[in-house]
Structure formats: structure tokens, C-alpha cells
Design a protein that fits this description.
The protein has four helices and six strands, in the order βββββαβααα. By secondary structure, it is of the alpha+beta class. The chain has two domains: 61 residues, no CATH class; 89 residues. A six-stranded mixed beta sheet has the order 5-4-3-2-1-6.
Length: 163
């Protein structure tokens, strides 16, 4: 899992990451294409370092893990595909209930016909609620995958990308 650090749009290979005992990110050593190495620290903590370094805002946010992100994207797409397949199966079950309701024998005595219709109607409502729930889940997963929820706070996105 090779990490990179994104500094003003330039992605540098991370050589090492140093954390404090509490888990706070302290510094990142990275290599430029020309082999030059730089130590990056968070701007808020830069006054505590005596070694040569470059201070950047949001050091933690500058770290990227392309392999992990690619795997997450792949798994999310598999999940969406699986949910869409399940939705098709559930929709066909819903259609089958409607067909069964439509083919109900008229020869049944009224009491039995009423019982069957009530049972099928409740079965249909339950299946319909399941399908609607699945539709909502798929739409939420797609919106998340497309970054909709990240773009809700446009100001913070612009702030991150402008550095």
C-alpha cells in the first residue's frame, strides 16, 4: 500500500510517516521525481520542529492511498451491482404476486376469496415496501459513490482544492 502526499496538486511518493504516541500525524517524508526528499509537517505544528521542513495546511488530508481508494471504489461498485440485481429479483416477485392476484379463481366461495385477497394484498404491500427500501438504498449508495455528500459543503471542498 504505497501512500502519496498531494502538495498543491503534485503527488509525491511517501517514504515514511511518523505519528506521535497518541496517534497524531507528526511528519511525512516524501520523495520528488528527481530524488530530492522533503519533510512535510502540519502548518499548525511547524513551530515545534527544528529540522528543515515544509509546512502545509491539513497534513492528514494531503495523504492519499490510491490502492486503497481504488479497492474501495471497486467494492462499492460491486455492492451497487449486487443491490441492483437483488432489486430486479424482488421486483419480479412483486410482479408475480400481482399476476397471482389477478388469476385468483372466481369459483372460490366469497369468504375464501376475501381471505386470499387480504393475504395477497398484505404480501404485496410488504414486498412493495422492500422494493422501495432497496431503491432508496441503491440511490444513496450511488450518490455517495459519485461524491454527492462530499459536495454538500462546497466551501470546504474549494478550500481543500485551492491549496
Amino acid at each position: 500500500m504505497q501512500a502519496v502526499i498531494n502538495v498543491k496538486g503534485t503527488k509525491l511518493s511517501v517514504l515514511s510517516i511518523r505519528h506521535s504516541e497518541t496517534g497524531k500525524l507528526l511528519m511525512v517524508h516524501a520523495s520528488h521525481d528527481n530524488g530530492h526528499e522533503t519533510c512535510f509537517v502540519d502548518k499548525l505544528d511547524s513551530q515545534h520542529f527544528s529540522i528543515p521542513h515544509v509546512a502545509i495546511e491539513n497534513l492528514e488530508g494531503a495523504l492519499e492511498y490510491p490502492e486503497v481508494e481504488a479497492r474501495i471504489t471497486e467494492e462499492r461498485n460491486k455492492l451497487i451491482h449486487h443491490l441492483e440485481q437483488m432489486l430486479r429479483v424482488e421486483q419480479s416477485k412483486l410482479d408475480a404476486i400481482l399476476v397471482d392476484l389477478g388469476e385468483t379463481e372466481v369459483e372460490y366461495p366469497f369468504e375464501k376469496l376475501g381471505d386470499k385477497l387480504i393475504t395477497k394484498q398484505s404480501e404485496y404491500k410488504f414486498a412493495q415496501q422492500r422494493v422501495f427500501g432497496m431503491l432508496d438504498t441503491i440511490e444513496e449508495a450511488k450518490a455517495y459513490a459519485e461524491g454527492y455528500f462530499l459536495n454538500v459543503d462546497c466551501e470546504s471542498i474549494e478550500t481543500q482544492s485551492s491549496h
